[in-house]
Amino acid sequence: MDNERAVLSYLKEKYSTEGWLQRDKISVKDALKVLILDPLKASLGAQSDSSSFHIRLTYSEASDEALGVSKTTHESKRRKTDAENGSNCISENSKVYEPCIFSVHCNKMPIFFSGRYFKYSRNVSQSRWIIDDERMGEASVEEILGGNILPACLGDSYKFHAAGREDIDVRMLGSGRPFLIEVQNSRQCPSEQSLKEVEEKINYSEKKLVGVKDLKCIGSQCWAMMREGEAEKQKQYVALVWIARPLEEKDFNSISSLKELKILQKTPVRVLHRRSPLDREKIIHWMKVEKIKGHSHYFLLHLCTQAGTYIKEFVHGDLGRTTPSMGSILGCRAEIIQLDVTDVKMGDE
């Protein structure tokens, strides 16, 4: 290909009046593909078609050691001098004499597994979380799911994707959160029975930190579908809230009567170090209050919100950075004690 570029450059300059020479030609690369494909079909007894199994043939230049460092240095100087002089002539130094290095690599395209996960612990992060070589939390959803699915596929590695995320101290309950596991270069695709066994292994583990349901192998197009649905999804929560004054009967009506409430949230103080300082308008679709017997300062707040709403900040107001907030609605200080996600509805649900 180096020689091809040098020859074409030289010919185009020398025969600039020849129109046919200025038009694009079939490249050495494309010609090589055509020449190699038929012999490969014949020798392997296979047809060339779209497949999840790929064979990569790599032709690369010989290393600097093989070519000689002094020669390489001399060539680069010669090319620089030629370029400065505006010369495109073919020199001996522009030709390739050394044979290329050839290698063969076989791999399978990624396979995908979908499902919904549950997080039962307030000390488990969604993805692996390491700060200054120290693990945050007891484990992660990513490692528990991926670590059980990967061996069933005999794959090289995996990537974890989820429709949104929850904080480490927030449980994921209800219907679970949709996720995808992408397994790289799998040697086998697990059967339905194998996936059932993986589910059972996770669900009946001794610590019961994470659960999973509806685990199945799917096509890669579902990754795009999940991302499309994520932008439109609604999320439901239940929060344990403390307020500075006793809860009154009128508070029940004032909260439950608020439908499609628009709030404005500045980027929370707790995530300013990793998020852009923006103003985000979000919608609280509905809310309802549940009393806690014997505790007038505490109540359970059930709410359904637009994706991306910061619930903790909606409750306590984040120093006035979220308006309105539960505190401003009730006219007193409000704090969130615990938070659970109870449902994640995708765009098509």
Automatic annotation (TrEMBL):
Enzyme Commission number(s) from the entry: 5.4.99.25
The keyword Cell inner membrane is assigned to this record: no
EC supergroup of this enzyme: isomerase
Alphabetized InterPro entries for the sequence: PsdUridine_synth_cat_dom_sf (IPR020103), Pus10-like (IPR039894), Pus10-like_C (IPR048741)
Keywords of the record: Isomerase, tRNA processing
The keyword Acyltransferase belongs to this UniProt entry's keyword annotation: no
Gene3D superfamilies linked: 3.30.70.2510, 3.30.70.3190
Domain Pus10-like C-terminal span(s) in chain numbering: 112-344
Family affiliation: Belongs to the pseudouridine synthase Pus10 family.
Protein name, per record: tRNA pseudouridine(55) synthase
Source organism: Camelina sativa (False flax)
Gene that this polypeptide is encoded by: LOC104740737
